[in-house]
Amino acid sequence: MIRIVFTADNHLNHFYAKMTPEQLARRRRRLREAWAETVDFAIKEGVDFYLHGGDLFDSPNPRPVELIWVARQFRRLADAGIPAYVIGGNHDMPKMRAEGATPQRIYDEVRVARVFSKTTEVEWAIHTVGGTTMAIGGLSPDPRLRRDDDPLAGIVIEPPEADIVVLMLHYGIEGALRADANEPVISKARLAALDGVVDYVLLGHVHERRNLQIGQVKVAFSGPTERMTFGEIGLETGFLEIKFEGRRPAVKDRLRHRPVIAQPMRREEIRTTDLPPEDPTGAIFERLRAVSHPDQLLQLKLEGPLLREVYHRLRFFDIWRLGNELNFFFDLDRRGVYLWTEVERNGDPAGDHVSPRQEMERVVAEMAANASEEERELIEEAKELVLRRWLEG
Prior knowledge:
Layout: E1 2-7, H1 21-45, E2 49-52, H2 64-79, E3 84-87, H3 105-109, E4 114-116, E5 123-129, E6 132-138, E7 164-170, E8 172-173, E9 185-186, H4 188-192, E10 200-204, E11 210-214, E12 217-221, E13 238-245, E14 252-259, E15 265-271, H5 280-291, E16 297-307, H6 308-311, H7 316-326, E17 329-340, H8 342-346, E18 352-353, H9 356-369, H10 373-392
Parallel strand pairs: 1-2, 2-3, 3-4, 6-7, 7-10, 8-9, 10-12, 15-16, 16-17
Antiparallel strand pairs: 1-13, 5-6, 11-12, 13-14, 17-18
């Protein structure tokens, strides 16, 4: 029997524009720790191989703290005698060849992991474990491909002679992405044509764990080890453990998804028509206190019409401040709020969306009213800077 761990889409070094520097540092640490659970499991269980399907990093230029952390984890695997095989992903793959190699290549250079970096040729490694020979192949994504390209078109897939053959890729496949996805997709026909050539295709890229059979070929996405955005609420996070037995063409496998507990993430939606006109802010405060947790990433989404006088009773800065006090991170989404006049409420339902500039002026006035003279000067300077950037953008 041969056992492997397969993971992908860890997105270390992910950037969150709305987080404070302290929040961002803590969140990035959570991303690293989630990925490290895959390494902990591999070492504890003594698996035979550790495979990574791309997007270990969220960009081609991660910070040194991320590079060092990852080096330590690959060193742990190497010290435990577990070979690691890695491909790049669309996030950590440079968009132009002239920009250099993926950040993973450094671990190949220091020999703590084997990195399959080629984008037009499958690279292979072969091992024998307990009398069973396994061939492991990898193809990194080609950033030059267009939406209508099939990433496997023209790719020669000829593994060495082996009892079990596993191929790692980092692409979406037909039926696994939205129809409007603007990216190359592997057709099911290409995968089915691998029958008799490849036993298992392991993929990164799609942030949803899936276990499929296309023709006679087994296909699996591991899914991510953490949720990246509020759009991924409810997504299962973890990695794959796969056990292989037998020899081709009668290879048997047992696949198990090993969960990694993600940082709590929640979206709370409030219809503006449900807010009491006399104290809408107090009602939102009450809802926030009911759904908040100090370790949670919370998004509050406000949607619907408001009379102008009710809108002006909403203290958005205080709502944002309370949300951040009660949660690890708080995002206030009020893009769906629009204004009604009494005439519009009783007649034409179409209202005006809130002017960003008017809202900025109002928030600044609220802050300045309770600030010292020195603080008011800083607030005014900040307002002018934001307005200038807004007009330029």
